[in-house]
User: Fold this.
Amino acid sequence: MRPDQKMTTAGRRHLITGVAVSSGIAIGPAQFINRRDNAIIVRQRIRPEEVAAETARLDAAVETLVREFSEAQAQLRDQAAKGSRESREQADIIEAHIMICRDPKLLGLARSNISEREISAEWGWEKAVQEMLAAFANIDSPYLRERAADLQAVSSRVTACLRGNRLRLSAHTAPKIFFAHDLTPADTLALAPENIIALVTEMGGKTSHTGILARSLRIPCVVGCPGLEEAVIDEALVIVDGINGFVIINPREAELAEYREQQSRFSLYESDIRKQAALPAESVDGVRVSVYGNLETSRESVLLKEFGGEGVGLYRTEFGFLSRHNLPTENELFEDYRRIVEEMAPHSVVLRTLDAGADKMIGQRQRVEEENPALGLRAIRYCMRHQDIFRRQLRAMLRASVYGNAAIMFPMISGLSELRLAKSILSEVKQELDNEGTEYNRHLPLGSMIELPAAVFVAEALAREVDFFSIGTNDLIQYSLGIDRGNKYVSYLYQPLHPAIILAIKHVVDMARQAGISVCVCGEMAADPYSLAVLLGMGIDEFSVTPRLIPFVKNLIRRSDVAEFRDLARQVYRQNSAESVLRLIRQNIYGRFSGELSFFAAMTGSEI
Ligand code: PEP
Ligand code: MG
Assistant:
């Protein structure tokens, strides 16, 4: 459903479009819990004799906040000690917030604003924060955007402390859709999870903490919504469409009815499919397929098991770097990898080495200015330049390998020499561990991602050097068709079923078969019913998808006839446009999958 984009004033209906970070539909009353304080900052001049008192007021506000953060952190550490990973992660984020409060540069700036400009503590603090934010503003990096959001979150809490108006979230008890300018982990602590139907914030992007929290609570969440403060009135009825990223305040009757209908159909279907999550993915003609999960944090392993995942096909280790302010130590990385490997044992866990660079920058120190970051220092190239980070990560992965069934995989391999260079570093790291007497799994499988056209062309040579391939279709499509995967102007050209992509995948599968190694598809394409039919027909029997989609993909596989799809694939190879491929598949699978297609479209935002 795509609601009418026009904003109406009758009945004060507002449609706000944001970024969907946790799927599902919620309908309920609104509650704004944290408004931006910047708008009401006291911009007041002070007399010279008031400078000392104003500075002391600022220091006291910051100390109060540090104390509150520390208390929240201690509580979280307690929960973490009892095994809550989510608490451990939130405690780390609070640590970052405490560091912001104690940042000598920020405090120094604020204090000198008060004394030199003779302005109020609120104003002096705000000016200092704005100066720091301005330094981030010209750098287009999701990492820095999130750090800026952290700074803003801390900043408004300091302002609120100065105004003696600190948040008291726990006062809210009834189930509500919570709206906020932004939410810090400390804020979310004060919310009883059973009372949150959905979360909506003005700030935040795909990697924001609010999204992480919402996904772990399995509630819909939309972030990055402009204009909430003006549009939301407490208790107003709201629809949160966490599938498409819409927030409708005071919806029309017809909209409400449609969403209610969609909500009940969706949850019925979902609970039905979820009940079958543990069943094996075996096609009607007896082909057994493995369905793994793509994970970004080890915390998601619980969810993965619940959704019937048979292992981790892709552990995106970038998240462990992106969600923090400084580089993780070898031991921190080891703990993270050990946790996931141990938790998933005896199932396998494919640990991908850092895919930093382009849109996944991991920090200022490692940053280089690049004209064309997607074609620059990304993934394995980044690791070759920052070998200290690469070696640290490899050591941690190898050490974790004795705790279960781990594998290592290199991203963005472009050719044989690059693969061999990465392998030689891996051998050196193994030698180092040998010399120290540190244990690791000597038979640890090694894989290469196939996500560049160059890797497709030289797949035969690469296949002789590794134990498995994993096709990253997200990037393979981007680099083969020459379109930025995040650019809305060329998104119409992002066609997984383009004949070039089909033939590229076919070639990789043929080369893997010839070398006797396994091949998995771990891009989003694996969770698209049309593509899935062709991939099954090509003989692919390993897929790795977002955990939430695992039960759905397994269900589709159980309804598939692989022999039939093999015939279909043969016809697909002869097509010369994405449109004709799609037409052909549609004719062939519609009868078989018809009931599922609309749900897939709802969840993945794809067209049917
Ligand atoms: C891919 O490119 O398909 C892939 C799985 O890797 P990522 O999305 O992390 O780049
Ligand atoms: Mg990729």
